[in-house]
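Page 42, continued from yesterday. The earlier attempt failed because a stray header line got pasted into the input along with the sequence. Redoing it now with the clean sequence only.
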Amino acid sequence: MSRLRVAGVGTGYFSRYHYNAWKRIQEVDLVGIANRTLASAENFAAAYGIPVAFSNLPEMLDEVRPDLLDIITPPETHLAAISEACARRIPIICQKPFCRTRAEAEKALELAEAASIMVVVHENFRFQPWHQESRRIVASGLLGDPYQITFRLRPGDGQGSRAYLDRQPYFQKMPRFLIHETAIHLIDVFRFLIGEVTGVYASLRRINPAISGEDSGLVLFSFASGARGVFDGNRLADHKAKNRRLTMGEMLIEGSAGTLSLNGDGNLLWRGHGRNDDHPINYVWQDRDFGGDCVYLTQRHVVHHMLYGTPVMNKVREYLANIHIEEAIYTSDREGRYVAL
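This time it went through. Structure tokens are written below.
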């Protein structure tokens, strides 16, 4: 293939970032869009120059026969959509949270492997430029041996009876929220930066009575390297930033030779061990669309794999490790104990 024919399903709040990104990737042609409400699909088709719109996913897949299906719908729809694409041997990129449960995610893997097709989870936080640069710095040895990684999630968007309603109203009804919907990003980032997780201890709580799931929590991670991690999440509290949804919080990676910190404006600072002066890390990134243009970077990564054979990250079998960790976190909170993986 010299070009990639992509079709999308879903027209919710976040889908605009997906379609914007596909339009910017020069090797991609958007060839179809489906949504259960046809009028919404038609509106998106007009906005993004997509030639055909459908209210029925199987009909779109049969008529358009895309090279890749982008699933941009809530978790409860994922397994059915994956099943339809697998039945037609169409590769998939699928938004997170990936499916509703570990059992559904494992069924999706079974379907994909039986059909011999690629399913990649659209886990875009690891493609945020500050996390890419942090990985480069950790790998360079500048920090020495990593001791601990800490992320304080503070988007400040979870207060009051109207929390999330203007952007993603289904957040209010999710029985599992902070970890399943949001912290899953940081689980993936922690693995990306520090390595595999060997156990967790968690304490979760719900603060805002207007929602169904937890919106605050502390999680302690053990890594195979011996390092530790702390996820400190609170969706009601905020942090200092021009745009509090840019990084969603602040990160600290501490090692034997120094400390790397990330602030809410995407700035990375390095401080050597035993010193008091911070040094800015200069790196190139775009403050465009969501999270430093991470949606575009994620999708371009998948396109380059399909067209040019470059390695691809977050295929479902690899991504299941994140879901196993998520389940362990909920078990730890429920049973009040450390859970080994």
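Notes: Residues 35 and 55 are 5 Å apart (CA to CA).
Reminder to self: strip header lines before submitting.
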